[in-house]
Amino acid sequence: MSEPIVVNAYILIQTEVGKAAAVAAAISGLPGVTSAEDVTGPYDVIVRAEAHSVDELGKLVVARIQAVEGITRTLTCPVVHL
Fold first, then answer.
1. Nearest Cα to 31, choosing from 61, 6, 11, 1?
2. Is the pTM of this model over 0.85?
3. Which of 7, 49, 56, 71 has CA atoms 20 to 30 A from the CA of 79?
4. Domain 7-78: CATH architecture, name and number where available
């Protein structure tokens, strides 16, 4: 039996000029990413991700998402249930 998903997060991404669509496409195929869309505004791509733990979420962001070419900055926003 697999571990339950306990952490959901939005990851806001700034990219190099003209790279938003390519970054969103590259990220959308990563395990743990449920959606990746290019948007307008202060961020260029918004990603929805899920993980079994905060540590696993951190590894996804640092090891996989930030490794995608064209990304200049990320901001991870875990979802909370108040």
1. 61
2. yes
3. 71
4. 2-Layer Sandwich (3.30)
